Give the backbone structure.
Amino acid sequence: MIMKKIEAIIRVSQFEEVTEALHDIGIDFFTYWDVTGVGNEKSGAIYRATVYETRLIPRRVISFVCRDKFVDASIEAICKAAKTGEMGDGKIFVSTVDESVRIRTGERGPESLYIKE
């Protein structure tokens, strides 16, 4: 059975919606961290005579490994929950995971993941 790693870079403001959408399809365990990216915006914003850099965009990365059969549902859930229709909604990356080991029990492969078949 194939396992996939899904990494999604989303707007921080959409994090709660994406979290709920993933929980709704059975993805209950994931890692996330805050990052800053550089976008296509070429100008700064001025507020009270101070110039703020608008090219540096705060984002949140969500990462998890799942069985192949959950990939399409995960992508659909993230897209639906993260979409605002504006530039900068984010990206999703999917890659193959060759091995997984649950440290506590020594289980390997898909059996080491959080959802039992």
Summary: The first helix runs from residue 15 to 24. DSSP finds two helices and six strands in the chain. The chain has a mean pLDDT of 88.
